[in-house]
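Re: beginner question about structure tokens

> Can someone show what the tokenized structure looks like for a real chain? I only ever see the sequence side.

Sure, here's an example I had lying around. Input first:
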Amino acid sequence: MMASGNQTELYLSEQVVVLCTCALSFLGSSLIILTHIIWTDLRTTPRRLLVFLSVTDWLSAVSYAFGVWSVFRTDSPECVAQGAISTFANTSSFFWTVSIAVYLYVFIVRSSQRVADSLVLLFHLVSWGVPLIITVTAVCLNKIGYDASEVSVGWCWVRIHAPDRVLWMLLTGKIWEFLAYLTLPVLYILIKRHIHKAHMALSEYRPILANRPPSQSFSSMADVKLTLIPIIFIVLRIWSTVRFILLLADSPVRQNPVLVTLHGIGNTSQGAANCVMFVLFTQPIRSRLCTSLCCCCSKCRAEAQLSDSTPQRHQARQDSSTQREEEEEDTSRVQTDR
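And the corresponding structure tokens:
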């Protein structure tokens, strides 16, 4: 990678890395959505919230991959469209991540599933509505376009020549990212403290509760694992924040190849990280996936064996028929000789 004025040129290797992480996030988000559709007994409210987050990650992966693959150089209609979709999906991802943390806080700490479930409609209105309004306004005011990879890694975002581009960078993502950094750790710490206290209290009365059915436990392992979403979010997103701060300081370090690569990986890996944590590392879902794959492999093997044996049986029938015809001819010939 090299810098040319205010433009950051990307090496092919950096593009390949970002495209690979986009592909992994696309597959990971798709797998989360498919498992939710196929297995109806897994459709708990926390899982539904994770699915909505996965939809935004899916859109982000597709739009980022298109931008990196296309290597835009101007404010073309395709660049604007890609920038608008990625802006909407990225901002919506911030809101859904915070929404999940709020839901878990109310559900686990406040011990009110009814109140937590009643917030889902509000989550939809805010997490889809606010990003949509911001994105449509930015497009109508001609703020979305080619940004020379100043705070991106090949995709389009806020136009580099916009006089108020810092303001629109804040409105179309960064301000919500900063708020997420402040909100998520507080909620996460409160949730972990409550879980720790609950476990301590439970250990004192474990003999009394020894026969309690697991289904009656206050929060399932899946709900507890969802608290890791904010941690994953912060670890992946911090690199883009660092580059934005360096842009404000007009520091050339923002064009450092390692920092640019980490930014590209972080912004495009949310779907893959969620899939690893909440599909591959979740025992019930992993078991079902393994069972389904084994069944598919067995079925394919059986079909292959059947297709291989069919020509052999057909050839055997032909050979048997030919043999009978030859025997009949021999019998006729013997009778004629007599």
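Each token stands for a local structural state, so reading them left to right follows the chain. The longest strand covers residues 2-4.
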